[in-house]
């Protein structure tokens, strides 16, 4: 009887651990030298889709079913949006990726695999605050592969948004769907502590 109880308790603990792991926030799989770092997506500003911690890295995402928290970008002299003159120029649901680069960074963010919808990308200093946009672009020329490059203040956290000019449904084109986020360039980490024993 005791052995049966012990086995049942062990099985229950294993099931609980599997459930907790399945519901865990975005995780980063350890990098293989020279290979992209795969990320597991999960959400939005309150629960970001994932964290970008290395370059090169690649992550799959899906904006379908998300919320439209940034309905439009302001006119920043063309840095963030070629449609800034038009109100509500970002009607699609967003995915949000968080990153904090080290010194000497220079990163390029690009989307691929968004063949069935109209993507747009931008980087904010404050999550969800369109006025904090520092860089962005639409899928210029209908290529569906927007790309943006920039350098960033070391140690500051930034928010990379995947969005669309169109709403998720009902626009001239679909405004949500699957994509792959590709990050390349220099993404140094900051050394917080160094010790020789």
UniProtKB/TrEMBL annotation:
Keywords: Signal
Signal sequence segment: 1-22
Superkingdom assignment: Bacteria
Protein known as: Peptidase C-terminal archaeal/bacterial domain-containing protein
